[in-house]
Amino acid sequence: MELPNGRRISVSISRRHDPSLAIRYGVPLFTIVASLLFAGIAITAIGVNAVAAYGTMVTSLLSFYGLSEVIVRMIPLLLAGLAVYVPMRAGLWNIGAGAGIYTGGIVATAVGLSLNLPGPLLMTVMLLAAGLASGLLMLIPGYLRAKWDINEILVTLLLTFTMIQFSGYAILLMGSEQGVQSSKTLPVAAQFPRFFGTRIHLGVIVGVLALLAVYLIMNRTRFGFEILNFGSNPEASQQSGISKYKIVIGTLFIGGVLSGLAGASEVAGIQRRLVPNFSPGFGFTAIAIALIGRNGAFRVLLASLFFAVVYIGAANIELLYPVPFAIVDIIEAVVILFFIAGEGIRRFEIHLNTSPQPEESAEVVNA
Amino acid sequence: MSAVLESILSLAVPASTPLLLGCMGAIISERSGVLNLGIEGTMAVGALAAFITAGMTGSPWLGLFVALIAGMVFVSLLAIFSVSLKSDQVITGVMLSLLGVALTTYFGRPWTGRSVETFDTVVIPVIGEALIDLPVVGRALFQNTPIDYLAIAVVPAVWYFLFRTDIGMEITAVGDDPETADTMSIDVTRTRYLCVLLSGLLAGAAGAAVSLSFAELWTANLINNRGWIAVALVIVAQWNPARAVGGAYLFGIIYAMQFRVQSIDFGTIMPLSGELGSVYNFIFHPVIMSTYPYVITILVLVLTTRTTRKELAAPQALVEPYMREDS
What we know:
The complex is a heterodimer. Chain A contains 14 helices and no strands. By secondary structure, chain A is mainly alpha-helical. Chain A starts with 20 loop residues before the first helix and ends with a helix. By secondary structure, chain B is an all-alpha fold. Chain B contains 16 helices and 2 strands. Chain B has helices at residues 2-31, 39-57, 60-84, 89-108, 127-131, 138-142, 146-164, 166-176, 178-183, 188-214, 226-236, 241-260, 266-269, 273-283, 286-289, 292-308; strands spanning 122-123, 143-144. In chain B, helix 1 runs parallel beside helix 7 and helix 11 (226-236) crosses helix 12. The mean pLDDT of chain B is 87. Classes of the chains: A mainly alpha, B mainly alpha. Chains A and B meet through helix 5, helix 6, helix 11 and helix 13 of A and helix 3, helix 4, helix 11 and helix 16 of B.
């Protein structure tokens, strides 16, 4: 709508145009300060000096080992984040990265324990099988959404809990001798090699390749263009000949493959056997990572770096102070909640400033 | 055999209480268009609030009351974020669940393993006293805690509220088509706030039912996905409180069977147990049975969509934040 003074009024209020500098930098700063403050209260509440704890957190993060652990943590977060990111670009919610992670972990363990192949070949087969199995699992929500418009949020969420429970059965099937709550240890040929005397493992290469592949698919292929097109307006894009089946099933399949790789890497690189709850909420953190990085694959990388730092920092506090491990989840949840609050405040500001009500403006002009 | 059945049923009834209460809350919230994935966390908050209050005052009733308040206070975050700030309901709900479970794990540690005053089972007067000796179902139906009976009483209340009152009609209107509701001068924001807060109240009660009635203790992972099952139950119930009862008891029975199934010899009661023995062992494996609530919900989702040939009974505007186009 055009006003007499020539200014266009945007009807969509979720669009934000040129947020002021104060808001652009103030909101992220507010997110971090508010989260640290909130977690600081929780730490102080059980009688630990929060300032000292934060000091240790920073120094331990800046050590060589601390930094290497951040990278270790980034591997599953990046892969799972990308697994949510790709469907998100098509306007779909994959909150089943956890389902893919567990499927990938189960399949990788099964392959690693049963096939007798030389190391590099075995690891390749493990990754391929894990990715394929998780991709196939995600065909369920994909097909249901494409064919009958069944809400993919609910199906992927339900699959997550199904697979978490099922992993308990898989562990029993592949169990070790003396009733230990884990599968047999993978043979050496199936264990991902680690580098530089740290826990950084082969998964880091898988992550980088996946990142590049996702970037290329989204930005350099016709399929990627169609995904974006579909995501911004499903009806119009279908009228222009883009297949809903191809986009919906395709993006969820890719999401499944990526989360399967995350699970396989975590099991073969870190745990080296299938254990219960080997994914401490990676699938849910991935939602936040994709949300923050939704504008590009490399932003997903940055978001996964951020959450890896949060996780390792919080874990270091837990390690060095008598603070329950739940502090990690508290900090993570609070960071994300303040982040969304900040986003909301930022949007709210914008729609007050640049989108006056057309009717009211018109009345003012008439008067 | 009837002893096994009786033991399954008498565990299934109290096990279904938190599912039923949580599901009632989730239905109210979803019918107004707000998907509340924070039920799990809200139940955890309610459970700990109830447990601590009962421990300090000696009154489980006061514990239940505080759980209702705590549930509402905690879930108000979802209302502020998703309704006022238009943030994404999925991520907000999931993070509230993470936060609720983590906060209660964190601050509940001193209460782990303590015993407090909890709800005792009572036999329903007159009817229960007459029927308590019925084979198999007698004790399961008529000897439970007050909170179990309350949960049953809540169902018709919620049903009446949603389907027979003006506010209930407004809630449905807001959940299906907020734009039209708004033009009919229904306050979308206020209605959604009301529904989200009610869902927190009921989820808080569900938490109290776990800590003060079912488990009668506090541990770190006490809620153990009951909140997520309650959310799944909404689908099985097709957003209708009356239909949630059957689903809640079905899930309660599945839960109870996980603990009692070892005492059942399928060779004697199931056909073709020679040929299908390993199949039965798989189907009735406790760990496999723990996936059933989720698998059943997916199947219900598929079957109802296929048979009704429309978008389920789901509120049309579920998960969509509402903003006036012109503001």
